[in-house]
Amino acid sequence: MVEFGRITFDKEIMGGRACIRGMRISVSIIVSQIAHGATIEEVLTEYPDLEEADIREALAYAGWLAQEQLAVS
Known about the structure:
The protein is mainly alpha-helical. The protein contains 3 helices and 2 strands.
């Protein structure tokens, strides 16, 4: 099993969505910003509590999720 030490899930924070280190910054926000052309530096500027390793792990987590196989009927 792959471990993502910076990705946390807490039903009291963002309804249990995947977040970074217990903060109210979801993985989906980070991935969406990068997908829409933001650089890592721009994301770090917008969210100063983040570290570059947080962004890289969010991207790795999204990549891992995309590899999952879905049951297709």
